[in-house]
Write a structure and sequence with these properties.
heterodimer, A: alpha+beta, B: mainly alpha, 25 helices, 0% strand, elongated
Chain lengths: 364, 439
Amino acid sequence: MSTKAVRLFRKLDGLFAVYKPQGVHWKLVRDNIESHLLKELNSCPPPPPRLTVQFQLLTSGENRSSTDLILSPSMVPSLADHPQVTGPQFHKVHVGIGHRLDAFSSGVLVLGLGKANGLLEHLCKSHVTRDYTLEGEFGKATDDFCHTGRVVEKTTYDHVTQDKLERVLAMMQGANQKALIMYSQVDLQTQEAYELALKGLLYPHGKSPPILTGLRCIHFNPPHFTLEVQCVNETQNYLRKLIHEVGLELRTSAVCSGVRRTRDGPFKVENALTRQQWTTDNIIQAIAHFRSTKRKIRKSGIYRQTAAQSNTSIQEQKSKGHDDAQNFSCDTMVGRESAEKRDEESMMKRVDEKNSSNCSTVLN
Amino acid sequence: MCNILSASIKNSHEGPVVMHLCQRCVFVFRCLRIPASLQQSTCILHQRSHDSRITAALLQPSHKQLPVHNLSQKYNIETWRPCGMHLRALSSSVQKNNSDLTPKKDENHCVTYDSSVLHQESSQVSLSNTHNIGLDAVVRPSPFQEICEEEALRIQVPSALPPVSFTLRPYVDQSETLSKLVQLGVDLWKLEQRPNVGSMLVKLDFHSDVAPRLLFLKDLGVEEPKLGSLITKNPFILTESLENLEARVAYLRSKKFSAQSVAAMVSKAPYLLNFSVKRLDNRLGFFQQLLGLSSEKTQNLMIRLPKLLCGSLEPVKENLKVCELEFGFRENEIRHIVTTVPKVLLANKRKLTQIFDFVHNTMGIPHSLIAKFPQVLNAKFLRIRERHLFLKYLGRAQYQPSQPSYISLDRLVILPDEIFCSDVALATLEDFEQFQKTL
């Protein structure tokens, strides 16, 4: 029963990234995309109505008298299958969402369609980091750390220089690095831990507070400044609080005037769809673009709890983790172990490129 | 429950004779034959037949008969005629002709019957004279009873419609009203989701309820393609009394609305004619007095946005107060805005405030210029924001008419994206999209 609508629906299966505009709740974005997809699906022609047999009293032919009525059957399309009676063919399209963004922030938002919704869970539990651009403004402090909030305090900021800012950021990064090592449950005295730290493959296990794996200032123009942050397990409010704390460390106060997510794991802002591009064709193209990423997420999902530090623990985790794997059977896993480990490491390397450089500088 | 079934049966009754019989019934009715000698016996004991086929056939019509027990006599006469026939004929046939029923058509056979012996009770009463009645020894009509062709053709078997349904799909084919509404263009799937509307539509009779109102709307001047969407949005126009509808139209005509304008207003605001004359009068008076416009301009406003006459007046009053006090527009400016873009009266207060705040404070546009181009107040906030920031980034955000390369607010807002990028911003669409990703 492959009508055009059903064929189109089957193509809507995968992950893609969307650029969420500022000031819009993420649910509105999701609903908007769902309604665009439904409109396209329901514009396809509906299946033909079934024919029912109806006996109609018609006058018989000329050989009998005209007063004779006979019941003659005829195939009539049933009105019960008329599109005005049945309604649209599709009422709902499952659009799942990855890491959420609050209304004040903008940036890359990962959405999933169809079977890829299950992968979103893998993505959320995986150790991928996210890239943010934070814009701050010295001179005032508000109650909700945003520049639109109620002003609580006003200070001077003439004494702030870029040098001081960088020092404060380095101090913060050091503290975060310590937290990272602690939560990664790794004994730094071991050789393997040192190698992993060199490569930048340390990440926190299980529940952890938000940790910044990278932090630097990209623009300084008092009172405005821009920070770039790579973090794990964060919320946008935490990042705005971070700006406030930067202000406090510099003996002044600061508010956040923008939070922008430029990368969510392997999904970068260059491939995110803007509002004008939220149509079915563009979404299918984006899904095709991210197909390889989807495969990697699926593979790395098996390792989401793994300690990538030691090979033995990887083996243990795999035997434990195969219960959680939804897409792979045990046999294939064991056979492709080495290939998958390489894949996962390469994906992590690509993703945590900057982290490794930062890590190495701090450790040095 | 019963009502839906009875209504549907009634509908199928009065419409063109489109009978929906199952083939088995037709075959069974046609293949009956009772020898003429058995016709004389009338009071014969009916013994419970062990033939499963006969009992199945017997039970089938009885189940259909039970729910229609309380219908009008007219229905009873027309449909129970053959059953009444069968009751007496069966008793004779089962007794004497167990296995010799040869299916042969007897076209001249017409069983006489007593019209008084029609109700099931009466037939049962007649049998009670005889002795030895079992628990389910009610005389059932035999499907093997032969009847003449005309009788067979006139049998109206009530179709097995579900008494309760969540959708109108099972009733559409049987109900004349519903099928005619579908042909008119009414979206039944939308109406059946509203509470009680589906039952109301099934109970309506096409010729006495629906047709006169459709003709009324046509006389009013509403175009045929729009009738469907009108009824989809307001099915209650089919239950409003015709005198009321005519009175309201007469009132509108008396207020110097032309016939075409009344038709246009009814098409745009389907609920208009459901409101009483008093309420319409109240609203017209309110708008005339509040806005301080001439009667002609108020009329034009009503014709453009007849929803004003339907909804509540409180949001309108609030919006006007917001414009006056919060935004600080003068009386004549508000009048100009309302006559150019009437939707401002019904807009969401919060969104309106957000747009005005951005346009006046962030873009720095004075009141007079906003009043000159009220379309900005109707636009989407995100669109205004993105386009303004793009122009600012390019250095082309110039909204003062006195200075060169001036960009008017309506061009900023109304133009589609490609034309905006090429003409106003002098950049490409890709640049605009790249810029959007930096916001």
